[in-house]
Write a structure and sequence with these properties.
The chain is 80% helix and 0% strand. By secondary structure, it is mainly alpha-helical.
Length: 66
């Protein structure tokens, strides 16, 4: 699911699901590594999306200043 374009909210929801699965203790070590990798991809995508929004806000803020 991490490879698709998702909204930030959807990404956070997927991350929460992955965290729940990892904390549940029912995954094999291999499954845990896969979930970890998927989660790290989601974190990277979230971080990039948040950075873009922050940059837009900075531009908007600068335009408002006299």
């Amino acid at each position: 699911m991490a490879a698709k374009k998702m909204t930030l909210e959807q990404s956070f929801e997927c991350l929460n699901d992955i965290i729940d699965q990892l904390q549940g203790g029912e995954l094999t070590l291999e499954e845990s590594f896969k979930k970890y990798e998927e989660g790290m991809k989601l974190v990277k995508n979230c971080s990039e999306a948040i950075d873009k929004v922050e940059k837009k806000l900075i531009v908007i803020d600068r335009q408002k200043q006299p």
